[in-house]
Amino acid sequence: MYSQHPLDRESELLLNCVTFHAGKNDTLNLTPESYSQLNWSKLVELATFHKIVPLLYITLNSFSRDCVPKSFLDSLKEQCHQIGAYNLFLSGTLISILSTFNDEGIRAIPFKGPVLTEMIYGNLSLRSFNDLDILVSRNSLAKAIDLLFQQGFSPDIDLNAKQLIKLADKGHHATMIRGNVIIELHWELTGRYFSRPITLETLEPRITQTTFSGCKVHSLSPEDLLIYLCIHGCRHHWHQLDAICCVAKLIHVRPDLDWKLIMHLCDRQGSSRMVALGLLLSNKIAGVKLPEDALEITNNYSQLQKLYPIILERLFPSRSHENIKFGFFQYVGFHHEVMSNHLDWLRYCLRPLLNPTHSDWLWIRLPASLSLIYYLFRPVRLLIKYLRRKSS
User: Fold this and answer.
1) pLDDT by residue (tens digit) across 120-160?
2) Number of domains into which the chain is organized
3) Sign of CA dihedral 114, 115, 117, 121
């Protein structure tokens, strides 16, 4: 099913963009003749899916302006302007929310989104994101949700404040929306991957301060951030190039990463294989050069090499340009490879079968007072999904 296949020209161009911005290449490795055979519509569709439209535009505008149709380049430029404007808007919203939390005595750590983008690219317009992720302590979760309600935010599903707090406490985050702003308020970073949750309290000794948009904000240490990005990539099976780019760029811009600390934290959390896979992909796909200590991590888990063609096929399917979704058994098998603790693996794989998700709430909208019914709907919905996939 997952045989390695030659990449088409559009995929090769995107990979060239990734390796250029990860710091490996200083030129674009395509001949002028290659551009005449590109499917420009497919190229922008792929770049949009992989969230690297700004990287594509900058690369083409810097090296290939004479080979690219002006209308296509102008369209990319306009998309980049829209991404940059939206990112600035989200950044201002984030600063406002963090200020409100701080005034109310809530310690909050922004991660991903604009803070990550500015850290690894130094420019908010170079990465596409569509929500704001904020970490708070579990004890502050209810107060933070209440403050967001006061700020005009509401849940993305039909819940009152008390029910949303209960759902978020049982899970790992709450999603709230105001207009076109999406906030994901987390009390745990990994999506409950491990028996030992990664919370604000466990990260506290290494939390740092950074300057973001002229303001001092709390942030994850670069070591914790690298581990989180690798865990997050594995949760989503590394289905977008942006996830690999973020790991590669962080390694490139932070040569001072404490790899001994990273290995120690991974051993304690049970995330060593996930980090090893993230490092492997940043090297093989983004082309970033790994320091010796990072290579030691990947060498310790050389069996993960067999996942590379699977992930490459998911990134650039041979049958069509639509991303391949894992079925349940592929999902279980993938996580068996990347999780070190078998009990954590079993718990994580069974949870989707038993616990209602946001998708269940969006599938059928019921009043909040009937929320317990979703526990009955969950297996029914999964069975319907399975039968549909099998029939197709």
Assistant:
1) 999 999 999 999 999 999 899 889 999 999 999 998 777 77
2) 1
3) positive
